[in-house]
Amino acid sequence: MALTITPSLELPDREVSVSFVRASGPGGQNVNKVATAAQLRFDLAGSSVLAPEVKARLRALAGRRVTAEGAVLIIARNHRTQEANRREAETR
Question: Which of 6, 23, 25, 85 has the fewest CB atoms in 10 Å of its CB?
Fold first, then answer.
């Protein structure tokens, strides 16, 4: 399932990955036991759907969220469930 950005732009699955990690924050007793924080990674450098000028603008806007490998990394950990954090990361 591709990640839809606008009606005319979708990021293919091969360029976006979501993993779950442990994080501080809401969660009560599960906070140190369950990986609920969503970590969304978009391969900006290797993207085939974005034009070079769009990549440059996104790199400038993303700032510290861009890794040394050229990926945009978004971490969402405001919710207690993986699903809610995944939705928040995709929305961002």
Answer: 6
